[in-house]
Write a sequence for this structure.
């Protein structure tokens, strides 16, 4: 075990949004480990321009990460999926190692209960209710310390501030609305007395020009003209940012600019929505919402966006009139506000009439249950939240609760059979169970794969299952 005071290495070589969602972890580490230097291995194209708004840390590019292998570390936390990042995580000597790392034989393992859980929700995230910013940290930071963090509320709009940013880009085409929608939104914002400003990076130059041309009115188009630092500065003068799920959305939320997140395409607002409380998410009320990847030829969730209704919501937010959204009706969509639940973890609170339906929404009830169950299994909190979630599911969806109990028995039989065989499950293991049980089956699948089918891994899964079954069998 490395001595107290030894440095900490965080490896985050993903995109801009992933890096910004690492900032809460850096804050919590500074509080929990005062005086211990933190080095973040990250893409310099993101790390350098974002340094002025980053918590204190030294930044290194992955190409120079090998320099960390010469010193003992207190902890190495790899939050990247790149093979080179896993190789580096395996080379840095540390008392605590979390996330993917390459072992002595070159095989990639995942260390940490919560990091294993995150690996298990890849293409299996229907009922995940843990935000990425929290999954980055839960193996090291107690929930009580997360709950004690007080994030400043985003700046409220006011009548004199009329400029509204409209970010038109996203890392994937399916994550952003169409250019026709954006053109209509620009017109509708202007009709309501607001001043829309088109924003985007170098990759959105053509898109921004197309939107401006289709809008049919004069509109400021700054796509490709601002770096990240300039974008953050401009955000201090905007009343609101309307944006898909993208890195600049996280930059806006981190720097206090109120955001209206158009959560469409293969994104889950529970995982990557604006992390700070007080922002607003608009997402489709569809059974496939929050998917990992669209299985249709095109994401139909994008097509339901109506520029006039979205502009209405944006205008209310830009003028600081959030309370007037309580009666807003957006057919096929729901409005949610980011906040915290009774445990202090990330939550989405319904706004408007949809809130009355949310309490008995089967999908949301199952998601809350599994969050409570995994928190119990990994020691993040006691069994109170799981009991409450089970009671709520029983009141709102009694037949579903009974079916889940039966599915648990089938999972137990499957685990026992596979444990005797000593096999290593493939992706068909979790897929064989009902969606309501796949969070647990998927985690078991990942645990056993991570241990190459060792009997101890199967036994660990059986122990977890026994504990979960005990919750369901209580009167």
């Amino acid at each position: 075990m490395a001595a107290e005071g030894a440095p900490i290495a965080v490896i985050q070589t993903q995109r801009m949004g992933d890096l910004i969602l690492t900032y809460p972890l850096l804050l919590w580490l500074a509080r929990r480990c005062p005086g211990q230097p933190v080095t973040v291995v990250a893409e310099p194209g993101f790390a350098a321009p974002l340094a002025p708004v980053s918590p204190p840390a030294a930044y290194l590019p992955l190409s120079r990460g090998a320099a960390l292998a010469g010193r003992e570390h207190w902890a190495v936390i790899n939050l990247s999926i790149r093979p080179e990042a896993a190789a580096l995580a395996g080379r840095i000597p540390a008392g605590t190692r979390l996330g993917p790392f390459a072992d002595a034989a070159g095989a990639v393992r995942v260390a940490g209960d919560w990091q294993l859980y995150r690996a298990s929700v890849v293409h299996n995230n229907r009922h995940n209710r843990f935000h990425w910013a929290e999954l980055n940290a839960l193996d090291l930071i107690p929930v009580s310390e997360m709950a004690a963090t007080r994030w400043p509320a985003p700046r409220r709009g006011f009548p004199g501030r009329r400029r509204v940013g409209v970010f038109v880009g996203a890392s994937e085409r399916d994550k952003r609305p169409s250019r026709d929608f954006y053109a209509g939104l620009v017109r509708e914002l202007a009709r309501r007395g607001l001043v829309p400003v088109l924003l985007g990076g170098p990759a959105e130059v053509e898109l921004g020009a197309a939107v401006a041309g289709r809008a049919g009115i004069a509109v400021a188009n700054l796509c490709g003209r601002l770096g990240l630092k300039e974008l953050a500065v401009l955000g201090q003068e905007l009343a609101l940012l309307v944006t898909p799920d993208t890195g600049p959305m996280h930059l806006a939320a981190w720097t206090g600019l109120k955001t209206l997140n158009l959560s469409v395409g293969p994104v889950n607002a529970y995982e990557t929505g604006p992390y700070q409380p007080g922002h607003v998410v608009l997402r489709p009320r569809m059974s496939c919402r929050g998917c990992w990847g669209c299985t249709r030829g095109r994401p139909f969730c994008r097509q339901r966006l109506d520029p006039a209704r979205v502009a209405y919501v944006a205008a209310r937010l830009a003028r600081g009139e959030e309370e007037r959204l309580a009666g807003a009706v957006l057919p096929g969509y729901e409005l949610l506000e980011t906040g915290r639940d009774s445990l202090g973890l990330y939550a989405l609170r319904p706004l408007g009439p949809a809130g009355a339906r949310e309490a008995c929404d089967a999908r949301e009830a199952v998601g809350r249950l599994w969050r409570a169950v995994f928190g119990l299994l990994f020691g993040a909190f006691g069994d109170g939240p799981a009991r409450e979630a089970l009671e709520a599911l029983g009141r709102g969806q009694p037949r579903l609760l009974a079916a889940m109990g039966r599915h648990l028995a089938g999972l137990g039989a499957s685990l026992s059979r596979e444990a005797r065989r000593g096999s290593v499950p493939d992706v068909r293991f979790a897929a064989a169970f009902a969606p309501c049980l796949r969070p647990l089956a998927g985690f078991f699948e990942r645990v056993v794969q991570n241990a190459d089918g060792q009997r101890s891994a199967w036994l660990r899964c059986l122990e977890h299952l026994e504990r979960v079954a005990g919750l369901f069998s209580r009167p």
Notes: The two ends are 44 Å apart (CA to CA). The mean pLDDT is 92.
